[in-house]
Amino acid sequence: MSFGKGCHLHLIDGSAFIFRAYHALPPLTRKSDGLPVGAVAGFANMIYRYIEEARGADAPTHAAVIFDYSSKTFRNEIYPAYKENRPPAPEDLRPQFPLTRAATKAFNLACLEIEGYEADDIIATLARQAREAGGRVTIISSDKDLMQLVGGGVAMLDAMKNLAIGPEEVEAKFGVRPEKVVDVQALAGDSVDNVPGAPGIGIKTAAQLIADYGDLETLLARAGEIKQPKRRETLINFADQIRVSKQLVTLCDTVPLDFGLETLEVKEPDPQALMDFLNQMEFRTLTKRVADKFGLAAPLASEGARGDSVAAKWADGAAPQPRIDPQAVPEAPIDPAAYATIRDAETLEAWLAEARAKGVLAVDTETTSLDEMRADLVGISLATAPGKACYIPLGHTAGGDDLFGGSARVEGQMDFEAALALLKPVLEDEAILKIGQNMKYDWKIFARHGIRVAPFDDTMLMSYALFSGLHGHGMDALSEEYLGHRPIPIKELIGAGKSQITFDKVPLDKATPYAAEDADVTLRLWRAFKPQLSRARVTTVYETLERPLVPVLAEMEMAGVKVDTSVLARMSNVFAQRMAGLEEEIQTLAGQPFNVGSPKQLGEILFDGMGVPGGQKGKTGAYATGADVLEDITTMDDHKEAAALAAKVLDWRQISKLKSTYTDALQAHLNPDTGRVHTSYSIAGANTGRLASTDPNLQNIPVRSDEGRRIREAFIAPAGRKIVSLDYSQIELRILAHVADLPEMKEAFRQGIDIHAMTASEMFGVPVEGMDPMIRRQAKAINFGVIYGISGFGLARNLRIPRAEAQGFIDRYFERFPGIRAYMESTVAFAKEHGFVQTLFGRKIHTPEINAKGPGAGFAKRAAINAPIQGAAADVIRRAMIRMPAAIAGLPARMLLQVHDELIFEVEEGEVEPLIATARAVMEGAADPAVRLSVPLVVDAGQGANWAEAH
């Protein structure tokens, strides 16, 4: 078939496929001889998937897979240092290169490589020929170097993300249209390929220069007109180097070819030839898949390549991700003694020039407090490469050195404002990726000084996306786990307890190794984690649910919420009186005075004095009197006085907690500068994706008690404004109905029927109209309890009914809704096989204890059952929060708090309804388009002068 108008050529970047396959799978070897075949397995699966997905109306008529012949090409003659900094291919990958070519031929695809040219040059040549012949071209790759070819009938496709790349996408990445990409690359250079470019000029600046002057040659000819002295000198002094760089980045589209486009016609694979190759490689899973497709009998081969089943599952996104090998990223040893202290602007400018050239910069701050709203900035650390890190001291002081006996500034530091003035353009430069660990903290510190850090990556959140459920995500723990390095402990510098000092009192010779090490370790963790995101198939989770949430939460935390301290003070007095009354009632029931706040004395009263059976003593000899123990006692009909006493103690503890944790503590948390309370949200605190609130914790204010609701009265709107609350209605039950495919529940949600009344009616055979509130309450407890894998024992506690009766409710529930049990069983089975569960949005929650025996086994199963439901609900509200700032940008409103399924706003009085309409639309549509839920999301809204009125 000749190639001409109406033909469609697919050009597959084979080298990119190989390296993606190699890094995506654990090491695999052929069982018969130990030959490494992991990359071949992944490559073959990718090619097979490509062939299957390329069928259809827009299927290619011609296709080829293009490889790099070797690392040396004509570009090394132009510039001998080209790509010299690239490490050699891994030893176990080298023997797999020819096998990937054999795999391509086995699938009956054209396999192309030409000595002296890169694969990109061959692709450029074939694309030009196809375009000139009147055909269309799709380049299957995400390589930025190929983007210069886009346009005029040539498009790109990132097959891993199923993302089409056209002229608009190229312009979004480079700031210029495809035909100007080589000019921008020539200026910006490329540290990966060792293309020198213009020192100190990044992508963003390069794009602006090309936009201003039209093209590279015009820019260089008129370089003397540029106002910025350094930029002008760079372009004049490095003009020849820039022109050489353009030669290096420009693809050659005149590669001599000894074949025509017509030879690339798509052909079906020869089933027997393909089966022979796959069987020779001992890929049992893929061999069976191909055999089934062609209606052949799979050969009875040996046991297959070691790990082949894992490889196949990984290719399908099912198998658990292997742990990162710290040796997989060989780098220079960490040596804190080698770090630099920056004391002047000239030295800092040199470091920032290197950051611009590389496009990557790790950054960390040192401050006087963990409270970002009150902390003073003491210093900033940077890292531009593994082992190359520095510290910029800005606010170190020595006590008692000035005339008034206060703190005197230590000599040898940069001027505070001058340092920030130099850092600001780099920290805000879109062409330089900033890397941090727990970036939200540093983002807020910089924001308080007028710097908005962007773009950035956060190694804590990368770890969270990759390893949620396996371990914590603090930098020290990650360093030990994945770098084999124990960072300098902060206590060695600042001490502990009463003698602890703040970081500004740490001497510079000790501050530099500690602070710069943080930046160095963070950069190394980023280099280890970044490639793993795509291999673990959590890139979308990180990019859409984790990273974009950082500035949203930071802005909310900085906004804070106004609190009426007089209301809190009155409540503290009321709670104190209520506690005193309860203490008197409790001591009367006990028949003697005792300290109600003492678990030891309470245990003696209940188990020794009142004869309650089943008391368990701990190592200290005291009885256990936790809430679960007291809840059990409240259900004992044959120990009524003890049951009443236990109930009163639970009430006393609840009020005591409200007083100490909220009405007393909230007053202490009031920021004197803003007059508001500023909570801090932990993004990576809960395995399921739920946010945690600390300092103060505003997530756990009980909403179902009168006392808890009264505490919310203290959260107020300023004069002329209102508090608005929007709350998802029963979101976890709605998600359960969707994932477990429960027809009755889904229909009830669609019809707006009271789901708890419907459940009670289904279970107990009573009409919804005129239903006894107690029966509805029981159904509600079961509905929500089932999500958490509640047992009969737990339900009995919640409802304060006999255990047998509670278990009967649960049994009846499963009989009426069998889909729920099926969901639970399938979820636990999946967790046992794969080591994780997953939400609708791709979040992975690892379940390392799922196969454990003993007391922990039940908890692990319940956690696995609940995680996809609670995690999906958390993902939905995260998606809503991320979209919210842009949606309400035109309104005089701001988002203040997130409390589980609720968002709280502050808005001018006259704009309440527009805010509710806008925010409700965002929240109810938050799952789309990633997931099409089979039940509607419903958001309840309220408004008032305070939070209690609004909710």
TrEMBL record:
It is an enzyme of class 2 (transferase). GO terms for biological process: DNA-templated DNA replication; double-strand break repair. Keywords: DNA damage, DNA repair, DNA replication, DNA-binding, DNA-directed DNA polymerase, Exonuclease, Hydrolase, Nuclease, Nucleotidyltransferase, Transferase. Residues 339-534 form the 3'-5' exonuclease domain. It comes from the Bacteria. Residues 4-267 form the 5'-3' exonuclease domain. InterPro entries: 3'-5'_exonuclease_dom, 5-3_exonucl_a-hlix_arch_N, 5-3_exonuclease, 5-3_exonuclease_C_sf, DNA-dir_DNA_pol_A_CS, DNA-dir_DNA_pol_A_palm_dom, DNA/RNA_pol_sf, DNA_polI_H3TH. It catalyses: DNA(n) + a 2'-deoxyribonucleoside 5'-triphosphate = DNA(n+1) + diphosphate. One of its GO terms (molecular function) is DNA-directed DNA polymerase activity. The keyword Ribonucleoprotein does not apply. SUPFAM superfamilies: 5' to 3' exonuclease, C-terminal subdomain, DNA/RNA polymerases, PIN domain-like, Ribonuclease H-like. Residues 708-911 form the DNA-directed DNA polymerase family A palm domain. Its EC number is 2.7.7.7. CDD domains: DNA_pol_A_pol_I_C, DNA_polA_I_Ecoli_like_exo, H3TH_53EXO, PIN_53EXO. The keyword Cell division does not apply. In addition to polymerase activity, this DNA polymerase exhibits 3'-5' and 5'-3' exonuclease activity. Single-chain monomer with multiple functions. Belongs to the DNA polymerase type-A family. This is DNA polymerase I. The lineage of its organism: Bacteria, Pseudomonadati, Pseudomonadota, Alphaproteobacteria, Rhodobacterales.
